[in-house]
Structure formats: structure tokens, C-alpha cells
Amino acid sequence: MAVAARQSIVVKIAIDPVIDIQIHLTLAAQVVLDRAVEIAADRAIKLI
Length: 48
What we know:
This protein is rod-shaped. By secondary structure, it is mainly alpha-helical. The protein contains one helix and no strands. It has a domain at about 20-48. It has one helix spanning about 1-45.
């Protein structure tokens, strides 16, 4: 029982950073997209 618990903890530690990286990448992509939309909106306003 203790061995199984230990293995699941090791798996969790191995998987968590991958999930964290994916979350960080998703957030970074969202920030970049938001900024791109802002820049496009600014340019559109200047053109009008």
C-alpha cells in the first residue's frame, strides 16, 4: 500500500510541471493575443 502511494506521488510530481508549463504557455498566448488585439484596435482607430 505504501509503495503504491509513493508511486502515485512520484507520478504526480512528474506530471505537475508539465501541466504548469501548459498553463503558463496558455496564459502567455492569451496575453500576446490580447496585446495583438489592442495594437490592431489602435491602428484601426488611427486609420479612421
